[in-house]
Amino acid sequence: MSGMEFSDPTVTLPRPVLQKTICRNPDNEPAPWCYTTDPNKRWELCNISDCETPPLECLPNNDPKGEKYFGTMSVAKTGDPCQRWDSQTPHEHSFDKLSDQENYCRNSDGDNAPWCYTTNKDNRWEYCAIPHC
User: Fold this and answer.
1) Confidence at residue 21, expressed as pLDDT on a 0 to 100 scale
2) Which of 39, 49, 94, 116 is 20 to 30 Å from the Cα of 7, by its Cα?
3) Angle at CA 54, nearest 5°, toward 48 and 56?
């Protein structure tokens, strides 16, 4: 990619705007674009990576049971670490659909709150202490 910089001599903008390199899409191109400093290329599309939305680490009012919770809490209320969903040790289970969820608390079965199987062989599962937002 060539140097991205607002440098179109046909456009006059206040000086503070010219000092920043900002990609925009004012004319509905396939992606944001920017003028370049390359005399052979007036403008080009910007290479902007997709953003990831960080997980919400609390239970919102519209999801009090945490059925949509996808945060990273991985400890049960008892303090026991959660067992990985792709593991059958120390507790066997049939939640294979959660195998990509590491050992995070989940509520995919409509229980009262997110929960997990624990790594404590004497405590099969427990709810997780996820705060309300």
Assistant:
1) 65
2) 49
3) 155
